[in-house]
Design brief:
The complex is a heterodimer of chains A (387) and B (93). Chain A is α/β, with parallel strands linked by helices and 387 residues long. Chain A contains 15 helices and 14 strands. Chain A has two domains: 117 residues, Rossmann fold (3-Layer(aba) Sandwich), CATH 3.40.50; 228 residues. In chain A, β13, α12 and β14 form a beta-alpha-beta unit. In chain A, α1 packs across α5 and α2 packs across α3. The longest helix of chain A is centred in the N-terminal third of the chain and has 19 residues. Chain B is 0% helix and 38% strand. Chain B has no helices and nine strands. In chain B, the strands form three sheets. In chain B, strands 1-2-5-8 form a four-stranded antiparallel beta sheet, with no helix packed on it. A three-stranded antiparallel beta sheet of chain B has the order 6-7-9, with no helix packed on it. A two-stranded antiparallel sheet of chain B has the order 3-4. Classes of the chains: A alpha/beta (387), B mainly beta (93). At the A-B interface, α8 and α10 of A face β7 and β9 of B.
Chain lengths: 387, 93
């Protein structure tokens, strides 16, 4: 089973060929955006971080920025810094070059260029050249087993566990059968269902890790001294019929299919194993997507009951509605309808096969709706204070 | 089909269309079929009790515990945050 993708010089596989503009610090957001808006064919990210961060928290932010630059869906990178920040643009650019020596990387430092206008001009000049080069690359047939899928459910309703998540579970199993990798994440939304996931672990060590990450996550919630309900499940989840985190989680884990759990890894950590892997991320959709993509996910399938429009700047994000009325109501944003399971028009397996077929089409270049609308949602999980 | 029972062990089911109070709803659980008259309006995607659930008893969906009943719940009654509490992430307890 093949799709059409880009084979990078180091052997990794990309399904997009983006030129990405990355600010190393919040102060460089405006210039990064200005560069990207003037060069058709580029994408950019914005974030609130990069300065006055410490230790592991600063390291994690830097890692996520570098990992987006080195991602095989990215052809080349413009890194923009202010010049005096904690997470220096020079270091981000150097780390990307070191890991991917074949990749064009251009550095723009606003203070060195003489202000935002000149920095934007320098970035535009470099980005224009990179987009020209990138457009010359051709896709080639690549085995579906090389794909890494990130799964996500956001804005869940009571049909998430009936239609879209079980159908995504079928597609997840199909990808793993083809030799691929599937990421289950959003640890908060596994609370109450962890025993079912742990029972599928390949060994005791992985099973133990399931309970450890759940305990760590639940301790963060209880440490706030309140009932988690309202934050998880959210008010929209509750309006949609979900009464507790346990109920949400039990519906949530269906999207991970039925295959053995190979490993539990940290937020944004490199994904190296085949099969099903649990990445420990928060339940917040954008922090989760950003972590999964930083780990190496090529694309994301995102099920939704309340409706969502978000998408990664570099990894196509395919939306699946849990009900047909939602699919029609937010049709500009939602790619596929799993509501046919609720009405009885299709089986869970039918919808699963449709999701898998769409994954391969999108991997080959078909645009997900979030891409056509230019969504570039990006949020890095913070594990320390802003000083 | 108006209501879905996920697993035979469940004591609640999910409605897939809004059901008005007093409506008799046919429910299939495992091999058994019953009809339950709902005593509240049940909005789309929400749950009602398949049988009486005692205060403190586990509410079961997907064959698993989704929380505890905070008071006695009658068959056909809406089951949601007003009469079910989560057992997890309870920093308030």
């Amino acid at each position: 089973m093949k799709f059409q993708g880009y084979r990078r010089p180091d052997g990794t596989v990309g399904i997009r060929n983006h030129v990405l503009v990355i600010p190393s610090v919040v102060c460089a957001n405006r210039v990064a955006r200005g560069i990207s808006q003037q060069v058709s064919g580029t994408v950019w990210v914005e974030h609130q971080h990069g300065c006055t961060q410490l230790g592991a928290d600063a390291d994690l932010t830097a890692h996520v920025l570098v990992a987006h630059g080195t991602h095989p869906n990215v052809y080349g990178v413009i890194v923009v810094g202010l010049g005096c920040e904690t997470i220096r643009a020079q270091d981000i650019a150097a780390a990307i070059r070191k890991q991917c020596p074949y990749k064009p990387v251009h550095l723009v430092i606003i203070q060195d260029e003489g202000g935002s206008v000149k920095a934007t001009a320098a970035g535009v000049t470099a980005a224009r050249a990179m987009v020209g080069e990138a457009s010359g690359l051709a896709r080639e047939p690549i085995d579906a087993g090389e794909l890494i899928l990130g799964t996500e459910c956001g804005g869940s309703d009571a049909c998430s566990g009936i239609s879209a998540n079980p159908a995504l579970g079928v597609a997840s199993d199909m990808l793993i059968d083809a030799g691929g990798t599937v990421i289950l994440a959003e640890t908060t939304e596994i609370i109450g269902a962890e025993h079912l996931v742990a029972a599928r672990a390949v060994d005791d060590k992985v099973a133990k890790r399931c309970y450890e990450v759940i305990d760590r996550c639940e301790a963060l919630a209880t440490g706030m001294g309140v009932d988690m309900r309202g934050g998880q499940p959210t008010p929209g989840n509750i309006e949609g019929g979900l009464s507790s985190i346990e109920e949400k989680s039990l519906g949530c884990i269906y999207k991970a299919g039925s295959k053995p759990l190979q490993d539990v890894i940290e937020y944004a950590a490199p994904i190296t194993k085949k099969g099903l892997v649990w990445m420990d991320t928060p339940g917040q959709d954008i922090e989760q997507i950003t972590g999964m993509v930083a780990g190496g996910c090529h694309l994301v399938v995102f099920t939704t009951g309340r409706g969502t429009c978000c998408g990664s700047p570099i990894a196509p994000t395919i939306k699946v509605a849990t009900t047909t009325p939602l699919f029609h109501k937010m049709n500009d944003n939602i790619d596929l309808d799993a509501g046919t399971v609720v009405t009885g028009e299709e089986t869970v397996a039918d919808v699963g096969r449709r999701i898998f077929a769409d994954m391969l089409a999108v991997a080959s270049g078909k645009l997900a709706k979030a891409e056509t609308l230019g969504f570039n949602d990006f949020a890095i999980n913070r594990i320390g204070p802003t000083m | 089909m108006k209501a879905i029972v996920m697993k035979p062990a469940d004591n609640v089911c999910t409605v897939v269309e809004t059901v008005e109070s007093g409506t008799a709803v046919a429910v299939q659980s495992g091999d058994g079929k019953t009809t339950i008259t709902v005593v509240d309006k049940i909005p789309f995607g929400h749950k009602f009790a398949l049988r009486a659930i005692k205060q403190g008893e586990a509410v079961k969906k997907y064959g698993e515990t989704i929380g505890l009943a905070t008071r006695d719940i009658l068959p056909g009654e809406h089951v949601h945050v007003h009469n079910l509490e989560s057992c997890r992430g309870r920093g308030d307890k």
